[in-house]
């Protein structure tokens, strides 16, 4: 089957940008929201008119069908849109979809007697309430599953174009990819690995945090855990990495890349921070050739600043912010031990993949691709040194882009290697696949081993203040005296 690449590009960029329209028209005063919407339309038009719609690429039909089916089953057990087991992080997703469906915008809440407004990244949550909210919460929630599936398909397609190989094999590899926790399980648990995995599957557990010994908050998620726990962040990372690597290494056209990436701010600001180093690498590769246009220099900054003024409205004083190594002498943990845990974490999350990947690909990759591999490993070593948030969302979210890039190099190495090197990499993949096994296995068991719409009933979905237990609600809401809500936001409809 011959695939029109430019049409896929249009669908992808519209997918990324669509949610900004209900934000501009539903959250921002019309005097600003309408011009901002028109500015976004103009930027999209400028991008799309320069695409070559005659360009098509051949993909085997059987591989495409298998690719779509595998991803459908994977997303079916992800919990997104009520399909599969609902992990605790999805409670917020269910709540926001319900409240964006049933309540007038901007969403407001009574917090300790004060009226505060939702100031959270909205792109993942607002699309289906906008399109299907008139049919009620259940319809919007069910549509969110297909919305998630579409994003996964588009992003996996773009990432595949960078690595080539077999579509089905690539899909399996990326779904399974993760850090290796085998030694951590053996050293920290009284039972064997299989008993631990069985318990985690039956009780919907997880394996992240194991390589940090639950001592310092270091966490890199497997690709499956990214989607199953935080689809809004995962999709931003999947799409961002796919587009960066395509524009920078496949199509060699970065003219509109900064503009498109700026639209991801409302998807996940922290993931966007993690994508920024990859963008800089690509811009330097091309010496900023093609960068100097109105989309990147005018439209993207204006749209980004409005999004940033909204997202930065929250009060962050209560959030944990510090260097990862702290004084833990009261707990009997020295700085030296913390450094040891950090190095242990890096070895089993990053270097266990990076070293064999380099040994296999060092004579096969172009020089600039090898530089990218080293650059990604460096970034993954630096990102964990800072902590932001109780559960260190900085480490978990900012790392996603570079982790995915490392995974793509891992697949390149697997299909390029031979002999014992290929066997060794396959063994690492199996050992690193335990996290995906736990997540998929537990959700599949819960769903009766088939795709099953298990969304909670509307009356079971709590409000945002009710689910904010254990972390401050102020990381989701902002007072009305912040810049955005004072000067840009529309008045709340009564």
From TrEMBL:
The keyword Glycosyltransferase does not apply. Signal peptide: none annotated. The keyword Cell cycle does not apply. It comes from the Bacteria. The chain crosses the membrane at residues 7-25, 31-48, 64-85, 118-137, 144-161, 167-188, 257-284, 296-314, 341-360, 372-388, 394-411, 423-444. Keywords: Membrane, Transmembrane, Transmembrane helix. This is Uncharacterized protein. It comes from Jiulongibacter sediminis.
